[in-house]
Specification:
The chain is an alpha/beta fold. The protein contains 17 helices and twelve strands. The protein has a domain of 206 residues: Rossmann fold (3-Layer(aba) Sandwich).
Length: 444
């Protein structure tokens, strides 16, 4: 069976465009495109047959199907030849059963999808493998693509730089100066990307890179490029697969540029249309209170949306005031009976520290999602018996400075309620034993 996919306008304008076309917006309405699959071809296999194929491929060694993305190639990007796939065995991240944290917040069945365990430390790898593979496919067909570029608050640049380095394709990243962690900054530098640190915020980087790409034939790698969404949609598909093809009740995910929200919805929509699931989970998009345009729109029932100037937040990857995928995200939340919640700086930092005390090591963006989860549980919108998955978008090790400043009580806008600094002592037996039992008595 020949499986096919192409671009169409998300808003419904007429026209089909090849996945090898360098196009990001509809020529008629300027809205974003979406990747459309030949669903009739996919229906030639039953739901049971697809589940069997996906299970047999999952995390095995046959190229490229051991990847959590390319193991679902027919549903993701059938247009790329296997020889042009650029993969780092992405996907297949674990579901952390958050048993202690679950009981702490009043739930029986809470799981954390550890997307920070990807190769570059965030969920961005899932979409970048698809996009860079398509660029390699295009170049193999003689299409001129001199470089691939992205605007980033850190994680997108890391993923783009690594995948382009693996493919031998030049990468360019635009970063807002002094607004990404040191660990995030060094990743594209180490992988050889041209790294431009600009005196603006993410929205300013995004505006500039669109102009640069449009005028210089450089390929744009931000999530307004719908190829990224095809990889990211497998997060929801993989969660269902990991629960033996059963749907969960709630998914809580941090939202900045909002491509991840629409990607979740797209994965679940495909599974339902092809008979793998028969119901949707509810989705909560969690935003930092200092960068919350979707939350403000949600409070008005999505009747209007107003971009805003995002304020500085410790959840720097979602410090975005004009998200490019807002219309897709709103459509998804309406379809999935979704909600939007926000977290203050104090709430997100405390949620991180609270979770870390139960064995996690969370990034501040996951802290936003955990803080939103706590609010939904406290007001009864999520019930104790619901099975809930929180998407942890990045590895906490990228944000060691955030953790250190929390425990030192130096985070702006945050009261450190759970500090745990080293106890400095002389190398003396009595002093050491006293310190140990003082701590054990307090813990008891």
């Amino acid at each position: 069976m020949r499986y096919r996919a192409w671009f169409e306008c998300f808003a419904g304008c007429e026209g089909k465009y090849k996945l090898t076309d360098i196009i990001y917006r509809c020529p008629k309405c300027e809205g974003l495109l979406t990747v459309v699959h030949d669903m009739e071809a996919l229906r030639h296999r039953s739901a049971a047959a697809w589940m069997d194929i996906f299970d047999r491929r999952y995390k095995r060694t046959e190229w490229p199907y051991g990847s959590g993305i390319w193991g679902k190639k027919e549903w993701v990007c059938p247009e790329v030849e296997n020889d042009n796939i650029v993969s780092m065995y992405e996907g297949g991240t674990n579901l952390f059963w958050a048993d202690r944290f679950s009981k702490d917040v009043g739930l029986d069945d809470l799981w954390i999808k550890m997307c920070g365990n990807e190769h570059t430390g965030s969920f961005k790898d899932l979409g970048m493998t698809v996009l860079v593979s398509m660029v390699k496919q295009m170049r193999s067909e003689g299409i001129e693509v001199p470089a691939v570029a992205c605007a980033s608050t850190g994680d997108t640049s890391a993923a783009l730089a690594a995948y382009c380095a693996a493919a031998g394709i030049p990468a360019i990243v635009f970063l807002p100066r002094n607004k990404v962690s040191s660990a995030q900054l060094i990743q594209p530098i180490a992988n050889g990307a041209l790294t431009l640190s600009l005196d603006t915020d993410f929205d300013g980087c995004m505006k500039l890179i669109q102009e640069v790409c449009a005028k210089n034939n450089i390929y744009l790698a931000n999530s307004m490029n719908s190829l990224r969404i095809e990889g990211q949609k497998t997060v929801g598909m993989e969660i269902v697969q990991q629960f033996d093809w059963e749907t969960v009740d709630w998914i809580v995910i941090p939202g900045g540029n909002l491509g991840n929200v629409s990607a979740l919805g797209k994965g679940f929509s495909m599974m339902k249309e092809l008979g793998i699931i028969n119901r949707y989970p509810r989705i909560c998009c969690a935003q930092a209170a200092r960068a919350n345009p979707l939350y403000e729109s949600y409070k008005k029932n999505f009747q209007e949306f107003e971009p805003k100037k995002a304020e500085k937040t410790h959840a720097s990857a979602i410090q975005i005031g004009n998200p490019v995928s807002v219309n897709k995200a709103i459509a998804c939340l309406r379809e999935f009976n979704g909600v939007v919640e926000q977290a203050t700086e104090d709430e997100l930092a405390d949620a991180c520290a609270r979770a870390d005390r139960t064995g996690l090591f969370t990034c501040p963006h996951t802290g936003v999602a955990l803080a939103a989860l706590i609010k939904l549980v406290d007001r009864g919108e999520i019930s104790r018996r619901d099975r809930v998955v929180v998407i942890s978008t990045a590895n906490g090790l990228k944000f060691a400075d955030f953790k250190i400043r929390y425990h030192e009580g130096r985070l702006e806008g945050v009261e450190s309620k759970r500090p745990n600094l080293p106890v400095e002592l002389p190398a003396d037996y009595d002093a050491v034993v006293k310190a140990i039992f003082n701590r054990l008595e307090k813990a008891g």
